Amino acid sequence: MIIKPKFRRFICITAHPKGCEKNVLNQIDYIKSKSQFTNARKVLVIGASTGFGLSSRITSAFGSNASTIGVFFEKPPVHGKTATAGWYNTAAFEKEAHKEGLYAKSINGDAFSNEIKKQTIKLIKEDFEKVDLVVYSLASPIRKHPVSGVQYRSVLKPIKNPYTNKTVDFHTGEVSEITIEPCIDEDIENTIAVMGGEDWSIWIDKLKENNLLANNFKTVAFSYIGQWPTEQIYRNGTIGKAKEHLEQTAFLITNSLQKINGKAFVSVNKALVTQSSSAVPIIPLYISLLYKVMKDEQVHEGCIEQIYRLFSERLLLDKIPKDSEGRIRIDDFEMRDDIQNKVSELWDEVSTESLMSIGDLEGYRTDIFNLFGFNINEINYEKEVDEMVNIPSLENFFT
Ligand code: NAD
Is any ligand 1 atom within 6 A of the Cβ of residue 90? Predict the structure, then answer.
């Protein structure tokens, strides 16, 4: 089939298997060009198919020869309809890992459910014995609670007051003003239920109950802070409350792991183009300006550069550098005063007319298309490709 990008608002509903494969190969090449580390051996990544989770899986496997189990929620292909990008990413990842003799198996389904946790625990018992590291990198708009059955929906809204600021439609480049109405009370609780720390702690509790955590075990989840102009909708908004909950959960998990000297961390990462961040209004314009400034200053990073730096210079060290709130920071370049001041100046000037020259909308767009395997130079998009790509460890998914 000939596969072209087809967007519904900010999400592309097609994905290109060869393009996704190329993205994964590029990330693998990046990790192979760096020095190896040896202290992550058996790694479980929850949310392993795209964004920071995929980069964590690649970094563990190709930077540390780790065996990896990846959990995610992706759509397999059916004849005439492509899979989601994360499916093709994982197919490419497993193929490359297996070529190098690395263990890599995947589980596709709702990580919030008891069923997927059970399947994962069974697989760890059979193949791993114990895990050394769990990366928790879920980003989801909904969560069905495994006990109550209640379905929670997360929202990205300011709290108390409406928030008005500029945003961009990345398809047209039009800069306009948007007002986001404040949340209602239940929104905060619902967003915490989806994106807070409860599910992370359930995962770790269940692994602990089954005696599957190695001595000196570590687990990490990801957060974001940022500052003006994203603050009112992100850190001070509903999602910020969920991130505060996630950050507090790290301390509770660490307390529960004293016997095995286990530790839970939250890493505050940089704003990046991923499937989840494109859904947050204002953020695409902020990222377009931020990319321009960070590229000019030669400190721009994508997911793989961020995660390599997290693993090699923070998370896997004996003494981990942390901020006053106990968080790991790899958003340090983004948060530098000179970078933020420059973004702020550009923000005041930015308009539809000036964005192309003062910002990096092109870089933003390229990254969005790349997420789905499109706009990659080496790929011929006029050529027929087989959409029915298999993930080796999930052969039975095909009907
Ligand atoms: P992403 O959308 O690229 O990846 C999300 C992953 O979660 C995918 O593997 C997807 O399959 C999986 N997933 C979603 N729902 C699932 C479910 N119910 N069951 C199993 N798997 C499921 O997201 P991302 O941007 O890499 O975000 C990962 C984490 O990093 C999030 O906590 C996010 O808030 C945080 N973060 C993101 C940014 C950013 O700019 N993107 C910055 C800092 C922190």
Answer: no
